[in-house]
Specification:
The protein has 179 residues and is mostly helical. The chain is built from 7 helices and no strands. The chain is elongated.
């Protein structure tokens, strides 16, 4: 069974697949061969072989669904502790400024709970628990608006000005600029 582009099975598809595995277990118990089970349930022989091995090793519990692979890896107590640590700020955790980035939060989760998240997974975790990206409500105290305006009017036009070529040129050996 091929999975959709977005990833694994939905809950309904997982339930249907589990029902198939349990039907296969009934056939295993009655002594049917893998090929017969595969033909009767209209699935591949390889899947039946995998299910039979799981059934032999773990019984009926071995073929039951393990649930969604995308379930959260931090429990509510850990999330509450993470929130407390985030409120303490990045300085308390060894960073040199007061910016929480997703990469820093990912690192903090790894340090505190020995759990690895991707940056995207970190964002999903935070979003799921009501966190959002923030913007400063005011400008930095050190900002000099007059100096910024002077830079925009005088320096930026020089930086932005297009480069002028030294003259005609050509990369061709036979071009007029190469003679």
């Amino acid at each position: 069974m091929r999975y959709a582009q977005g990833g694994g099975l939905t809950d309904a598809e997982r339930t249907t697949r589990e029902r198939l595995r349990l039907q296969a277990v009934e056939r295993f118990e009655s002594g049917q061969k893998n090929a017969d089970v595969a033909a009767a349930l209209r699935i591949s022989v390889r899947s039946v072989e995998r299910w039979r091995r799981a059934w032999r090793e773990g019984g009926e519990a071995g073929v039951l669904s393990k649930g969604s692979p995308g379930r959260p890896r931090l429990n509510e107590v850990q999330v509450a502790r993470l929130e407390r640590e985030l409120e303490r700020g990045p300085l308390a955790h060894g960073w040199t400024d007061q910016r929480w980035t997703l990469a820093r939060i990912k690192t903090l989760i790894g340090r505190l709970f020995h759990v690895s998240y991707t940056v995207e997974g970190t964002w999903r975790l935070l979003k799921r628990h009501g966190w959002s990206w923030q913007q400063p409500t005011r400008r930095a105290i050190e900002r000099d608006d007059d100096a910024v305006e002077v830079w925009k009017k005088e320096t930026w036009p020089r930086v932005r000005a297009s480069r002028r070529s030294a003259g005609l040129g050509s990369s061709s050996k036979t071009g007029p600029g190469s003679r």
